[in-house]
Amino acid sequence: MSRSDRFLLACQRKQTDCTPVWFMRQAGRYMKEYRAIRKKHSILTICKTPELAAQVTLQPIEHFDLDAAIIFADILLPLEPMGIQLEFAKGEGPVIHNPVRDAAAVKALQPFEPDEKTPFVMEAIRTVRRELNGKVPLIGFCGAPFTLASYMIEGGHSNHYIRTKQMMLHSPELWKELMTKLADMMASYLRAQIRAGAQAVQIFDSWVGSLSPGDYREYVMPYSRRMMDGLKKENVPVIHFGTGTSGFLESMREAGGDVIGVDWRINLDDAWKRLGHDVAIQGNLDPVVLFGAVQEIERRVEDILKRAANRPGHIFNLGHGILPETPVENVAAVVEIVHQSGRP
Asked: What does the alpha-carbon distance between residue 162 and residue 82 come to, in Å, rounded to a whole number?
C-alpha cells in the first residue's frame, strides 16, 4: 500500500498497512521555512496569494512522512465576502470590526459565490493538487456554524461567549437566521473546494466545547447537520472536529461526519465506543506532549494506538493544532512512531 492511500482508506474504515497521521496546523510557525515567509508577508496576504498558500501547504509534506496535506487558509476567510471586516491584529489574532449583534447586522450578511469571491482558496487547492501529483491526499476545510457565529458576534476571541449565548438563548429566531445562513454558505464553500480538488474536508468547531450538551443539541446540532446534508452528494470524506466535546459526542455523531475528531480530554477507546465503531475517529494526542522527552512522547502515542486496537478507521492526529514553539524533531518522531507502531 502506498502513502497516498492510507488516509482516505482510513476515512472509509478500511484496513491500512499502518495508521495514517497528519496534524492540524501542520503548516505553521513551528517550522523555520514558514517563519521565513511570515517575516515578509501577513497571514491574510499568504492566504490570498495562491502561490504562497500552496508553498506553505507543501512545506510539512516535504519535511515529514505525513499521510495528508491540508490547504493553508483561515476559517474566517469566507466571512469577508459576506460583509465582515476582518483584520489579523498583531498579538491579538483575528479582530472583527463590525460584529454581528442585531437583526440588521444578520440581515446584511450576504451569500456569495465561492469561486468568484474566494478564488485564491480554489486556485491554491488546484496548485497543491498539481504539485502533490498523487503523493498524498489534500484536505480542504471550513469553520462550523457555531464557531463562526461566535467569532462574528464576539468580534474576536472570547473566554465566556457571553454575547453569543445571549443571542442564542434570548433571541432564538435571530440565532436561527444567522446559523442557517452560515450552514448553507459553508456547505457551498466546501463544495467549491471539492470541485477545485479537495479529496476530503474537515469542519472545525473549535469553540463548541463552551456549550452544555442540551444547548449543543438544541442550538447547534440542527445547523451542523444542515451543513453536512449539503455535502452528502459530494462523495468525499467529511471530518467533524471539535474541542471539549466529551459531553455530547453522541450528538456530534448524529449531526454527521464520516470521521469524528476528538481531543485529549477523553480516552480514544472510550470516545469510539460512545460514537459507535461504524464511524471513523481522528485524534487524540495533547499538543503539549510534543514538548516532552521522546520516551514520554512514544509512551503517549503508543497508548493511543493501543486504545485504537488496530480497528480500521483510526487517523492519528493531535487533539488540536501544533503549537508554535513545538520542536520540529518531536513532530518527526511522532510520525515515525505512529507508522512503526500502528501496524495491524
From this structure: 23
At 170, is the pLDDT very low, low, confident or very high (cuts 50, 70, 90)? very high
80-109 pLDDT per residue, tens? 999 999 998 777 789 999 999 999 999 999
Angle between helices 294-308 and 268-275 in degrees, nearest 10: 20
Residues ≥6 apart with Cβ < 8 Å to 199: 8, 137, 138, 139, 236
Place of cell 520542536: 327
Residue 202 domain boundaries: 3-341
3-state helix/strand/coil string of the chain: CCHHHHHHHHHCCCCCCCCCECCCCCCCCCCHHHHHHHCCCCHHHHHHCHHHHHHHHHHHHHHCCCCCEECCCCCCHHHHHHCCCEEEECCCEEEECCCCCCHHHHHHCCCCCHHHHCHHHHHHHHHHHHHHCCCCCEEEEEECHHHHHHHHHHCCCCCCCHHHHHHHHHCHHHHHHHHHHHHHHHHHHHHHHHHHCCCEEEEEECCHHHCCHHHHHHHHHHHHHHHHHCCHHHCCCEEEEECCCHHHHHHHHHHCCCEEECCCCCCHHHHHHHHCCCCEEECCECHHHHHCCHHHHHHHHHHHHHHHCCCCCEEECECCCCCCCCCHHHHHHHHHHHHHHCCC
Give the CA angle between residues 257, 193, 46 to the nearest 5°. Answer: 115
Catalytic center residues? 25, 29, 38, 74, 151
Q: What is the CATH number of the domain that holds 18?
A: 3.20.20.210
pLDDT of residue 4: 82
At residue 51, does pLDDT exceed 90? yes
Query: What is the model's pLDDT at position 265?
Result: 97
Number of domains in the chain: 1
